[in-house]
Amino acid sequence: MPDLLLELFSEEIPARMQAKAADDLRRLVTDKLVAEGLVYEGAKAFATPRRLALTVHGIPARQPDLKTERRGPKMGAPDAAVQGFLKATGLTSLDEAKIQRDPKGDFYIALIEKPGRDAIDVLAEILPVIIRTFPWPKSMRWGARSGKPGSLSWVRPLHAITATFGPETEEPDVVKFSVDGIETGQTTYGHRFMAPAAISVRRFEDYEAKLKAAKVILDPQARKDIIFADAKELTFAQGFELVEDQALLDEVSGLVEWPVVMMGSFEKEYLAIPDEVIRATIRNNQKCFVVRDSKTGKLTNKFVLTANIEAPDGGKTIVSGNERVIRPRLSDAKFFYETDLKTKLEERLPKFDQIVFHEKLGTQAARITRIERLAAEIAPLVGADVAKATRAAHLAKADLLTEVVGEFPEVQGLMGKYYALAQGEDASVAAACEEHYKPQGPADRVPTDPVSIAVALADKIDTLVGFWAIDEKPTGSKDPYALRRAALGVIRIIVDNDLRLPLWKLLSEHAVQVMSAIYKDDTDLIVELSDWIGSAGNAEVPSNSFSNQAAESVYKLLKPRVEDLLAFFADRLKVQLREQGARHDLVDAVFALGGQDDLLMIVRRVEALGKFLETDDGKNLLAGIKRASNILGIEEKKDKRTFDGAPDAALYGLGEEKALAKTIGEVRAEASAAVAKEDFAAAMSAMAKLRPPVDAFFDKVRVNDDDPKVRENRLMLLNEIRSATRAVADFSKIQD
Known about the structure:
Radius of gyration: 36 Å
Helix content: 40-55%
Shape: flat
């Protein structure tokens, strides 16, 4: 079967766009082929700085013929309807139609045959459309061709299109079309400097081989492998170790077509700068890798660069050029760092009075004050020293105003730690300056030092409460303030550190502090809102309990938002548990009980429930509970009532009823006591005792007895099963 080779040869494509562009090209072409009835065997796309390439193999040489039936009017329909049917279907008379019998009458049916087209003609039709409408995130139009202004919008000027199609055993044909004056052909070009001559290609195998001979490695992964292997070998040979950087490797591989790895150096005096600043300087400005001493783990004064050419002088000029650029960059970084050290962190804080955090939430200074207060409140709950947590919260944001962080925002927090240590702060305070931003993603580590935990939680909770208070929540895929990440951060810190925190109380009390930023001058309002938190918890406060009408209004606004924020935490926890492999129905079964304030308890319940249901007792008990729930559901719907209330023991006529009732009482007490001690494994073990009497009950007892009172009593007993098991989970939410 024939194969397609397509190459779009252009000026340099930005490295950050290449991978997606290659994937888009593969997807767009193959989707269109399938839509046209040309089902292929395989496809693979490639990108280099100057080309997108696609190979699709196993394409049928021709579309299949299509036969379709089109239903027309009834027999005896008006002539206008008949003539319209004939015209639409291409029939010359009704004699060419067949008749289909239907309960509604006899209808004319036209059999329409559409012959398939040659695949090369289909490709010539679909490929130019794909090229003209290609979804580049940014594109450009350039100069005129043949005296006419260019109409093609492309990421960079497009110079040539290679498009061939044919079976492996024959000479392929060119897929004939043109885009903006560029005619397709079989000509491409090698490396810009080392092999710039035109190359004639036939199909993918010789295309890839000829490009390699012309100093172009087509496969991005192959270029990455070469860069990585050569860089590791080069550093190892000199007794060093490469500092691996996958994101940088991805980018560098998109900057070169023929990677050549070299090593440069800089003056040792710059090693006085923190390692992370050296790395950011060299990485951001020259796209080079840094190198560390394999024994000490500290950076050396070496760096690894990737050139795009085999230079005649062995690369000496290239290395020297990179060194000349890196040297002043490091000099600037050293100057920034030394300048920053001259000013203590707290001396920078007054500037935050003039920096607005959010127009509705006040200044950055006001936010820092709120975080300090909240960190002091959280500190004793997580075993942190209150004074250290307060101090860390006070200083944590100060490095945002330093020269180094201004130049390299990615080292914020980290520089706060260095500057805090340099001015003699406690090690826990310094660590919290860095770690309060963590975790910043699923792969990032969670802070474990109590002071860091307190400040990290305070920072994230302030962000969440603040934006919920002003009704700036995430919507759909939009989350401009990274609130989902903040909520997941809180969850991970709590769960990974086995913390028990009263979230409702923390969120509500902090919401009052946030409102104080909005209602600055209304002291009475804030006092009344604080009283609500202290006395009511999450219960409803009667309207007549407020002497301040504004406080009542704010309370009615604030309480549902705090409840909604707590529900948001619950949703994020559900997502995390499911991503970790927890069954979604078990998560729902635990969440159905409420109590979403205690995230750690929810996690432990889900874990214990999952283990219990893996046992035979768990599986069989679940079946019994589901049977009881199903019977109850049917009878409640039939009688239009619920069967709440305690059964009458005097109406138990069978031993199985009495045994079940006795066991339910024992299990309810044991399970409740175990849950109160948060021993969920013991609670599940207690539940397991229900299995034998439940099985026996359904074997020997007819629930819908002829005596209405006995029937009602037995249904109440079934409800007792459902009620008792809700001590640990809502089993009705669990799938069989």
